[in-house]
Specification:
The protein is of the alpha+beta class. The protein has a domain of about 210 residues: Cation efflux protein transmembrane domain (Alpha-lytic protease prodomain-like). The chain contains nine helices and six strands; from the N terminus they run αααααβββαααββαβ. It has a four-stranded mixed sheet with strand order 2-6-5-4. A two-stranded antiparallel ribbon has the order 1-3. β5, α9 and β6 form a beta-alpha-beta unit. α5 packs antiparallel against α6.
Length: about 325
Amino acid sequence: MPSQADHWAHDHIFLGAQHERNERRTWFVVGLTLVMMVGEIAAGSLFGSMALLADGWHMGTHAAALGIAGLAYLFARRHARNPSFSFGTGKFGELAAFSSALILLIIAVQVAYESAVRLFNPEPIAYGEAIAVAVLGLLVNLVSAWLLAGEHQHHHHGHHDHEGHHHDDHGDHDDHHHDHHHHGHHDNNLRAAYLHVLADAATSLLAIGALLIGMYLGWSWADAAVGLIGSVVIASWAYGLIRDAGAVLLDVNGDRRLEATIRARLEAGGDRVTDLHLWQVGPGHRAVVVSIVSHSPLAPAMYKQRLRDLHGLSHVTVEVEHGLHA
């Protein structure tokens, strides 16, 4: 028979609302990329095409990065109830996104280097074959981008409440509240996978334009010049992903408006918020720890009730101390 303590027990599952959907689609894109990679390498070896071989191994790099995203989803889901993770596995996707962003940055540097070398030392280009490879790569990446897009269109909200408090002789009250509001906010792991295929699609599109210019106008330098432009675009995407995923990994408070709202609601009636920590624990999930000092302290559940309708607060801890004089 469950004890009273069991009633207050709870899980710390802070996965994104579309976690399983995003995981399935990511693995599908990994498979599609691998098939494209094997096909290009096989065709390149059979027909002696360096363009096909080069693009095939390039696709392999993206397949590895996409595989990191898929493994992150798998690990986070399988260990979601593992008590070893104090605040769940919701941020594991951020770690994968940060790693993928570094890979994107390396790809940008590689593209820039190869483009610079070719700009000063142009090589003969088999335009027809290169355009065919670029078009095929573009189509595959457009399909992949379509599969990975659109998670913001799905929203689901659920509520699981666990209340508890402790009152000692010094007037300390601790209250823990868990509302699992599922949002499609900023799944950086999916965003990383999306940026990989988008970067490849953009590179293919730019390459097609440059190759057509070179083929019809004889401007062989256009291919290398466009490569340099593409590397800058990819590097900027990588930087944005590193910045955003890194902020979550370092528990940076990225929602000052929510923090201000929490303070305003808790400081009603003369109470004072003396300490407040707000951070993201998973896509669409935030945790907050608040210390309140009051000359007429209320029960912790009363303070919690003031935050009840704030979506995205999945883990709330309130500590109340008697010590403020009017």
